Amino acid sequence: MMRRAVWLLLLLTWPTWGGADEREQQRPTALSVFEDRSGALGIDEVAALPEQAFRRLPERRFFREYTHSAFWFRVETVPASERDYRRWLSIGDPRLTDVAVYVPAERGWRRMQAGIVYPPEQWTVLARQPLFPVEPETKGQLFIRVAGDSLLVVEPLFWSEHELLTHRQRIAFADGLTLGIVLLVVPLSLVIGLIMRSPLLVVHAATVLGYIVLTCIVNGYLINWPALLPWTAHLRFLASVTSFAAVLTYLCVLLQVRQLPRVWVWIYGVAFTLFMLSSMWGLFVDYAVGRQAAEWVMRVVIYLLVPVTLLASWRRGLPLMWMAWAVPMLYMLQFLARYVFHADQIPWQSRQDFLSLSSTLPGVAVLTCTLITELYRSRARQRWAQAERGQRRLAARARLEATVARRTDQLDASLHARATLLSRLSQELRGPLLDIIDRARRLYAVASGDYPQRIERNAQRQLELIDELGALSDQDALPSPSLRAGSLHAFLRELAEEAELLAARQHNRFECGLGAAVPDEVLADFGRLRRVLINLLGNAAKFTHDGRIALSVDCIEHDERRVRLRFCVADTGIGVHLDDRANMQQPFIRGRNVGAIDGFGLGLDIVRQLLSSLGSALHLAEDQLPGSRFSFEVRLLLAERQDVAYGEAKP
């Protein structure tokens, strides 16, 4: 990643290489300067000064920062070539705000001017860089007056038409390439940062964007909007304050200042306040003092506060990314190059390169590294999230399997306990019932009527139920149906007698209807059929008061070997609530309208299990009539006549 960043940085600096050799033949042969501390001298007074008043510049390039003085330059003109019909004089850096050129004329001096202190219509040439035409016949000395509220970078150069066009093309290409790279990388970083929710990437992109706006204002690009030229100082103030705020926010996010004690946040807030107040002082009171103070605040933040913050974050054990170390190191290298070794030959380290358009490129290179880093971290977080999700899924599966195993063990233990309980109950109940059957048989000789037969029959049926209970405890399922031949009519008569007794308990009337096509001799499991009907009739008798209970049997299909019968139990009781119909056959579920009527909600569940063993199912009529109507259908085989002799109409 670092290798790619270095190659990118070299590519971005390419537009700034070369171009110095072509200027050697265009520079004036002599350049001297006079400082007018009052800034009030005119051309006649300066031209009358003695030779000793001017200081010769051996480097033919002049720099001065934030001063109230006006500087007068005396320039020896360069002889024009034969093919030049006009030459152009460039004074220096585009950020010059007050430039005047005095050329000898027949009657005194001819004045040409440029800079934002003059209305655009008063400029000699409306150009981003102060530019003045010099006629070929102009010879001798000319004077240049320079003043302004910014850095003064003065380097007078004479250009031919062709040289000026070539120079402008090169500068336009370099600036266009720089702006193209910035406008490509910065919006892309902003969009990706917003999508990825990366505060570091968003703030870094905003920092580069604010800086490029500031450099465009400083380098005279407002010339494209002449109406904004009088507001250059105000726009520069807003851009510099916004850019510095973005830089501080970027450093706070990068160095995780919010994770440090709160005093660090206050320190950065005080630094921003001092910078803003200094910039306001420079805008409204004294530009020299205010801008120098603002630069000192910026230097203290970058070269002192940032390394100290990095050490504080490191000592606190915060997880810092590699760029949190790289950015302060780059600032320290910049400090050494500028103020210790004075390495002006390094790109962007000379004073005239400060706030140049190409000085944005290192920030773009670092922004590209931030973008690559955030993409890599995003992929790493995605892989970590996938691994974490996989581990959680495995852990959840393990917990589920452990829970299932535990519940299975509990269920096995519960089933074993139930089987043990059922076995004990069946064993305990058999003894008294056998004694009841024996006593009933002894009553045959002395009792009148059929009461002994009824006692014996009911006790025998109860004994069969207990036997089934014992079988259920051994097999945990109902035993297979036991089919035998018998009289269905006699079975229904006995069932009707018991149903009349059940109905009479709550003053109900019982009715029994038998279809004409219902056969008599059938093969059926009379025991289970009886239990189904008794449960349904018992429920009807329980939930009906002073009403009617009816049992009907109809033949709906008949052939030579088998018959299909429909049994229906109807009542005029409280019925089944509409919201309870879906769960009415579940165990331990009681209707919400049963009130204080006793019960456990097991009757219909027993009926459902018994009918399932008979190959049938229970249905509830969905009508608006009062009460409830339960029905089911069973298929029975017709019994041969010789088989009926072995069975009776009792279960």
TrEMBL record:
It comes from the Bacteria. Residues 424-638 form the Histidine kinase domain. Gene3D superfamilies: 1.10.287.130, 2.60.40.2380, Histidine kinase-like ATPase, C-terminal domain. Its EC number is 2.7.13.3. Residues 1-20 form the signal peptide. The chain crosses the membrane at residues 171-195, 201-223, 235-257, 263-284, 296-314, 320-341, 353-373. It catalyses: ATP + protein L-histidine = ADP + protein N-phospho-L-histidine. Keywords: Kinase, Membrane, Signal, Transferase, Transmembrane, Transmembrane helix. The keyword tRNA-binding does not apply. It holds the Pfam family 7TMR-DISMED2. PROSITE patterns: HIS_KIN (PS50109). InterPro entries: 7TMR_DISM_rcpt_extracell_dom2, HATPase_C_sf, HATPase_dom, His_kinase_dom, HisK_dim/P_sf. One of its GO terms (molecular function) is kinase activity. This is histidine kinase. It comes from Stutzerimonas azotifigens.
